[in-house]
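QA checklist item 7 of 12: single-chain prediction sanity check.
[x] sequence parsed
[x] length recorded as 78
[x] structure emitted
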Amino acid sequence: MPKDRFGIGYGRQLSNSDLRRDRGDKVPDVLETFYDFQILPNLRGGVTLQFRDQFSETIFGFRIKTEFDVVPFRRPFR
């Protein structure tokens, strides 16, 4: 569909990696994929799938996003 969106992202916390390795902790990384679509002109819905900490955790979720203008459009001052 024209206004649908699909994305993939990867993130990793790199600070204190030596300490984490010495303690035997898992690497705090996350791989996420998402898909969302327009429900109404100002409302989007979507699903997300995340794999965390060396793929030891899997999280499935959904999102609802809305957008609105608090101040209506005005002409610039002259």
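[x] summary fact logged: The first helix runs from residue 17 to 23.
[ ] second reviewer sign-off
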